Amino acid sequence: MEPKEKMVWTNNISLPPPSAFDLRGRQSVRATFKLSPKAIEALSIVAAQLGIKQKSIFDHLIEDARSLMLLARKIDSESLKVQERVQKTFVISRKALISLEKTARKANASRDALLEISLQRLLPIISRERDKHDRRKRILHEIRNFLDKGLELLAKSETDLGHDDPTTVNFKSAIKALTAAQNAISAFVNKGEIIENFDF
Known about the structure:
Blueprint: H1 20-25, E1 28-35, H2 37-50, H3 54-62, H4 65-72, E2 86-93, H5 94-107, H6 111-119, H7 123-161, H8 166-191
Antiparallel strand pairs: 1-2
Helix pairs in contact: 2-7, 3-5, 4-5, 7-8
């Protein structure tokens, strides 16, 4: 038996090392913002539909200082008029929070307003996901019809050939797999119902 190779730790790697600043920037911190209910709902919908953490969405939207500054120039009192704001604490990376606060100071804007307008970038994603949700519902309906016909055929196979016949046994396994798939798809569609009532 050949001896296992040992990993040799060395300081002679030619690639540049990660900076301590970048590594610390990935730390998670808690930050409280006052946002409109619609902005909070948009964040929740995208996180649920795409199966990613809200923190990842924040990091993607606000770590890019250049994009943030472009958005900051679009902030005006009319565009950010909302009847209600909700105070909510989120988990966000330190780097994203620093980027948000730095840009807000530079643009002389509130960080809440800057985050609010950044979250509006999620609207096209929600629109696409709602369209896909509608199509999933239609396909799920067809899958249910297909499963119903399969169950009828399985019952016929059991009657004509018996429960232990290889045709019945194999077809029953296929129906079980289809039932499991239908249940999983149904659960995902049900979870996506939140997107149906989102008001653009």
